[in-house]
Amino acid sequence: VQLVQSGADVRNPGASVKVSCTTSGYAFTTYGIHWVRQAPGQGLEWMGKINPGDGGTKVAPKFQDRVTFTADTSTSTGYVELRSLRSEDTAVYYCATGGPVYWGQGTQVTVSS
Length: 113
What we know:
The protein is mainly beta. About 0% of the residues lie in helices and about 50% in strands.
């Protein structure tokens, strides 16, 4: 099982960012894809998940109005989009699946003017 994420990104405050997670080595619709982030000096923070099989999502209350999870079954890729970015959103964003047991390599998102 492999999860390969998109590269680092720098955005201005108020902008949006979309991170991708391309999977391989298992049936894409078998497991949900979780999104977790880690800000500098902080612990892991669960953002939510999507079930690629039916598109159903769960979103942590903190992100309810700013985040969208999608999944493209034709490319076995999951996406997270975070809107209205602020400096506190600067973090490494991870996708994970299979429990989650398998993790992507992480994507650094920096929000700075």
